[in-house]
Amino acid sequence: MAKQDADRTTLDLFADERRPGRPKTNPLPREAQLKFNKRNQLKRDRARGLSRIELKVDQAMLHKLNVLAAELQLSRAELIQTLLSQQLKLYDSQ
């Protein structure tokens, strides 16, 4: 029987073959890693004086924000922060 490279059902033929992928270097499971990283991100943000807000928008607005952010080479969060700052300056000047 010939060995087919696409055939992964006969595991004994591929026991010594290294599969590409992300090496496991962290002993924690992925879910615990995500919680740990998120906690550290929130600590960094607080140290920088940033607060988190949640905003829900429809798909059309999200698409426009993504396109504009790409054109201006900004992240979507940076774009939203810039737009809000501009609107608040206009509001303060009235």
What's the count of strands? 0
Low-confidence stretches: none
Biggest beta sheet attributes: none
**Approximately how much helix is present in the residues?**
40-55%
Oligomer: single chain
Task: Specify Rg, calculated over alpha carbons.
Answer: 24 Å
Give the averaged pLDDT, no decimals: 85
Q: How far do the termini sit from each other?
A: 82 Å
The percent range for strand residues is under 5%
What series of H and E elements makes up the topology? HHH
Shape: elongated
The assigned structural class equals mainly alpha
Q: Give the helix tally.
A: 3
Describe this structure in words.
Residues 1-29 are annotated as: Disordered. Residues 1-20 have a biased composition (Basic and acidic residues). This is LexA regulated protein. Residues 52-90 form the Ribbon-helix-helix protein CopG domain. This protein has 94 residues and is mainly alpha-helical. It has a domain at 55-94. It has helices at residues 30-47, 59-72, 76-93. The termini are far apart. 0% of the residues are buried. The mean pLDDT is 85.
SSE layout:
Blueprint: H1 30-47, H2 59-72, H3 76-93
Task: Describe this structure in a few short sentences.
By secondary structure, the chain is an all-alpha fold.
What descriptive keywords fit this protein?
3 helices, mainly alpha, 94 residues
